[in-house]
Amino acid sequence: MKWIGNRISYQQHDGFFTMIITSKTEDWKMIAMIVWLIIWLGCGSIIFYFLLFTNELKTQHIYFYTFLGFWFYFLYKILRVIIWRKFGQEFIRIDDDRFSIKKSIWGYGSAKTFLTKNINNFKIQLLKNNSFSKVFNDSFWIVGQGTIIVDVLGKEYNFGAQVSKENGQKVSKILNLKINKIKSAS
Questions:
Q1: Is there a contact between 144 and 138 (Cβ–Cβ < 8 Å)?
Q2: Are 160 and 148 in contact (CB under 8 A)?
Q3: What pTM, to 2 d.p., does this model score?
């Protein structure tokens, strides 16, 4: 098994090629998200308590029910990110006639499968370093969008969430070589 950086591994097997992109992040970032989650749960619990078991907030119940709606939304978002960072992976598999990408948590997830003959190329998504979309996409508290683009019959699909530009270029080069090798053999 060969590595690109500390998150991407790949291997050539008999008859197929695999690449795994993990979603791991530094320990301090995971700790920060877990601390944020604990504080968030504490704030929500206090609002729940006062809303359901006291008369303190009865005159403002519409505001606090709306608040709890937003609170649940952001609770879902941070739980999703923590689970993705801890257990999430992207599986890429290339064999003689198919290319598949699977975004997976605990092995569950649906794969996008394409015919290798329909794949044109792989490239890096170009974003300006100081643009809002680049800064937001690289933030550790979101899952983020893919930074590597695969062109399939003129339609683009992205994968490789928060892969650096350097590692993304290496991944694109390897995948382009594998696809071109399969296309030339058939």
A1: yes
A2: yes
A3: 0.84
**119 close to 151: Cβ distance less than 8 angstroms:** yes
DSSP result, 15-49:
SEEEEEEE----HHHHHHHHHHHHHHHHHHHHHHH
Q: Which amino acid is at 116?
A: T
Q: CA 134 to CA 144: how far, in whole Å?
A: 10
Predicted confidence (pLDDT) per residue in 1-42, tens digit = 899 988 999 999 998 999 999 998 899 999 999 999 999 999
Tokens representing residue 182 in the block: 């399969």
Q: Which two tokens stand for residue 183?
A: 């296309």
CA 46 from chain centre, in angstroms, equals 32
DSSP annotation of 110 = P
Candidates 180, 168, 162, 178; CA nearest to 124 is: 168
For 81, the enclosing helix (H) or strand (E) is: helix 61-87
Instruction: Say which DSSP state 58 is in.
Output: G
- Provide the residue type at 163 as one letter: V
